[in-house]
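The aim of this short unit is practical: by the end, you should be able to scan a pair of folded records and say something sensible about each. We start with the first protein, listed as its amino acid sequence and then its structure tokens.
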Amino acid sequence: MSQTEPGTSSTHASHADGGRRRLAEVDPPIALGPLDGRYRKAVAPLVDHLSEAALNRERVHVEVEWLIHLTSQQVVPGAPVLTEAERAYLRSVVETFDAGTVAELAETERVTVHDVKAVEYLLKARIAQASEVLGEGTSLPAVSELVHFACTSEDVNNLSYSLMVQGAVQQVWLPAARALVAELAAMAREHAGVPMLARTHGQPATPTTLGKELAVLAHRLGRQLRRIEGAEYLGKINGATGTYGAHLAAVPEADWVGVSRSFVEHLGLTWNPLTTQIESHDWQAELYADVARFNRILHNLATDVWTYISMGYFIQVRGQGTVGSSTMPHKVNPIRFENAEANLEMSSALLDTLGATLVTSRLQRDLTDSTTQRNIGPAFGHSLLAIDNVRRGLAGLDADPAAMARDLDANWEVLGEAVQSAMRAAGVAGVPGMDEPYERLKELTRGRRITGEDLRAFVATLGLPEDVAARLSAMTPASYTGAAEELVGLLDL
């Protein structure tokens, strides 16, 4: 009989002894997380902006543009002004950045054990090869030592992350979020006049319309989008402790503050004039708080729509090839909204952590932000995946006005509010017998169902003016929606 270590089952031991193939050794590599595995297709556009490869590409971009900026502004005495062909050659290093470049950087980093230094050496290697493309007369080799000139790694990193996040938000996340809100707004307008029983505290309440409730959510989401659209993306390039020490030591006559500002703005970012070694990341915390708030409102939408589905107000479109339940063939589960909830919770948790962590750095710099910022991609990935789920979920819904009408017709007591409010107004106008309207309606409706006949009979006993009594007697739960339909028209999306 075989023996195992104490506390280890024989089954576990057989697996550990090689009874199964090690999945970590499978080629191509298997993703550890769901965003790069199961859900890769939905979040793939973010790879161009928030992956490790994207970070290195932006680093190369920043280094190239800094070199071009220094030479074009003639900041360093004796440095040649680059020709258009030489600038194009440098920028081609960014444009042709591919899997081969990624592998080359990885190989260099194994020697440097420093990611930004590997980028510097890559660019210097390309400059050394420039004569093969531009001819022996090129001046690029003469400016090789201006690569990473007076920079600390964080000068390159902070600008790279700003460009990455800006690209991810403006080119990927915002278009998807805008499309979702536009689709929701269209649903709100389509169903603006469909009466629906409201439920406050889960109890039957003053009727509304389906469209008005969807419009509320669209309006809330749209407001957050406007905040996110107005986000600032800050950057700095001012040296190891934010003092331009190396800059002024090397070229004291240059206006380094002006050079820094013009360069950051050249990249399309907002210049941060006062920093330590790191850009303070406050703009990131502000942006992530807004995106997390968008997530939480979208989570509210997902739970509300899930509830409307369970109440029969929405029918999920069949025939889309989905299996609702493995054992109950009649079911079509609201999985899109449930998956969205989970992904929104994951995204918001990451965004909250990013926002809380990134605004703090010990003294002039610590490295916690380096690890933290590598999780920006997953934070946006889970949000983007949730947006995709909600959009597909909404596209698979049909409203069922008949189900809503049945619910309304079963709850005539909600008109008690209308009657007692009319009594209050009549009493103020001098009509006698209008005392204690709330208490009288409470006695009629609290804890019991009433019918239309019950309500009309009650109204007939009140002594209201004829026109008021007629208006109340003609009212039904389905017609008691106030200005709900009109309010949908105020949606500015």
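Turning to the second protein, read its sequence before its tokens, just as you did above.
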Amino acid sequence: MEKSSGLSDNIAPESADAMPSSAAVSSPDENLLLSVENLCLTEGSADGLSTRNVLDENGGSLQRIQENRINGLSQCQTGFENSMPVPPPLLSESVPGSNSLSNGGSFQGSRLQLWAESRAGSSMGDNNMVQNQEQLKKVRIFLGLLRGDTFVNHCSNQNGLRTIQGLLRLRNPEITSEICNKVLALSSRGTAVVLELMLDQHGRHVFGELIDSLNYQQLKLIIYEITKNLDEFVSLTLVKHGSNSIKRVIRLLRRSPLVSLVTNNLCAAFLTIMTNRIGSYVISECFKQLSAEDNKLLYEAAIESCLDLAIDHEGCLSLIRVFNTIQGMQRYRLLFILSANVAYLSQDQEGNYVVQKLISLNNPFLTQKICHHLRGYYATISLQKGGSHIAEQCLDTEWKSWVVEDFLSSPDKPLNAAKDEFGNYVIQKALKVTRKSDSLLYQKLLLCLQPHLSILESGYGRNVFNLITGG
């Protein structure tokens, strides 16, 4: 009975478009743009070393930088004398990609370190330091050209997003800080650039690379921007790319106190998000990734809204997924509320799926409670598509006698069910389970049906007729 709908976080591999020739470029700004976009992100190796290309002062040519592999981790040796100091993260172990500063300007543990550090006193080291300072100057100018809408548009195409991703992967604090400032700025539409990136099929990959590159303080600014307006946050969760971006944030923050900013917003709009197919998977991501303590308020919201969720098409599927993770006293409270309302839910076209799921949990105490609350309703729900499945499930339990006794309470009930499109399956099931146990209930059920065999010989009743007569 469970229906499932999934979202894929995957985007088809991007093919590199041919870059325009230098002859086609007429302005200095375009020359600079081409120069930075030629930043090579591919790695090759030789004699235990790999190379990563960055720009030289001629604009189009590339300067190789050696990347030493130390203890299985790569450390690119280069740096910038005038790099802006970035404070160390408050929770560096909690936030992947967080930065730390040491040695008066070298960026230890990042992909980009001081080239001259291992070559102190050599003219070659001094020369490369000068070149790298020139390269940083070019990147500054390039990023200065990308403001607001221009930055969004640049990140919204495959070539542009690869350029910005490449700059972020250098893990240089000044470059990362500059890009962070740009995504926190507003576009011409009055919306934060970061929100527009999260909604774009290409821009969301720049957003993902960015949050992986930030230190704790920078990440806090981004999360504040995403969560400060509840309506904008909810809008993100309800569309494909925005939903995927929020799920990436949840995975990144799973051990950080910043995740409470996200979960608080999810709680505030819980019913709206949980009754949306795309949005519900954002909350499901919390249930999968976060601790029970971090999910506590979300589970409370699920308990409070469980009946409204149970009668909604998307909500009932979302609620069923909650069963897979909720634990302890909160689980007991949720199941207690639902089981106490099974007579109502069993007759709802969506709610009956929740009742079926509850019975399938095979909890004896819970199943007995459900079967007890349905007494007096079995004959009624057997005439409904979903309800007939519930009645059949109850006939497979040790409380099956309650189901049969409900039919026997009136001489018309067995016949009405036997000739019904859905009810005939319930009567067949009742005859089979009572005959197998050689119960008196089987004889009583036969006595009610045999006088009406001529009526059952055609239509939906034929299935019951064949079972009784052996036809």
